[in-house]
Amino acid sequence: EPEVTQTPSHQVTQMGQEVILRCVPISNHLYFYWYRQILGQKVEFLVSFYNNEISEKSEIFDDQFSVERPDGSNFTLKIRSTKLEDSAMYFCASSDYWTGENYGYTFGSGTRLTVV
Amino acid sequence: QQPVQSPQAVILREGEDAVINCSSSKALYSVHWYRQKHGEAPVFLMILLKGGEQKGHDKISASFNEKKQQSSLYLTASQLSYSGTYFCGTEYSGAGSYQLTFGKGTKLSVIP
User: Fold this and answer.
1) Do A42 and B100 lie within an 8 Å CB cutoff?
2) Cβ neighbours, 10 Å, residue A116
3) String of b and e for B18-50 (b: at least 16 CB within 10 Å)?
4) DSSP string covering B56-108
């Protein structure tokens, strides 16, 4: 079964440093997303990406964050000048919106970001 | 605006049934249901697109009441493997939205 792959699985970084989280979505999917989940809490939307540009972003997704699709397969989330409160599990997801009713999101296994 | 899930947590013995509800204050385009086991990614269960729609596979099914802006997930004859946190995710009507908003989740624990 096709998978969404995320790397690294765990990243520890010092406050103020920049991190790049990487994702390889399912190859024929058109829509890509980043979500985050602070430990024990709900899954929060960050940003959606379609046709090489941001479709929507949440209030969380401020100037500290950026996304890129540098080539045909990778989808990255960059967090500049990390803060302690950025510590969370970051999930990448993809979906193929137009294949009918079963366009549920496929989530990657996540990157646990710890800011110290 | 996030959907509201209830209950927050439920404990079942194997074989018992449960209902998890998801309601919204805004008109819904679709409702997704996901299950997340501890330390893992959410896994897609099903999506409901039309008012009155019901879907299911195995012993897990769901309904979507468009007028009431709510959905319910039904787990029958629960198995140990059903344990996890269940999230509903909603897409809102008319927004041309590419955003799925999740509820806070319902933690389901199935015990022998």
Assistant:
1) no
2) 10
3) bebbbbbeeebbbbbbbbbeeeebbebbbbbbe
4) EETTEEEEEETTTTEEEEEE-S--GGG-EEEEEEEEETTS-----EE---EEE
Q: In A, which residues are within 8 Å of B87 by CB distance?
A: 42-43
Distance CA B28, CA A52 (A): 27
pLDDT tens-place string over residues B11-50: 999 999 999 999 998 888 889 999 999 888 899 998 888 7
Residue type, B64: F
Q: Which two tokens stand for residue A55?
A: 């479709």
Residues of B in contact with A48 (CB under 8 A): 98-99
Contact B87 A42 (CB under 8 A): yes
Listed residue (A7, A13, A10) closest to A75, CA to CA: A7
Could you tell me if A107 and A26 are in contact, meaning their C-beta atoms sit under 8 angstroms apart? no
Please report residues of B whose CB lies closer than 8 A to that of A46: none
A2-57 pLDDT, tens digit each: 789 999 999 999 999 999 999 999 988 888 999 999 988 889 999 999 888 998 89
Residue from A38, A51, A30 nearest A114 by CA: A38
B12 near B110, Cβ under 8 Å?
Answer: yes
User: Minimal Cα–Cα distance from A18 to chain B, Å?
Assistant: 24
Closest-CA distance of chain B to residue A62, Å: 16
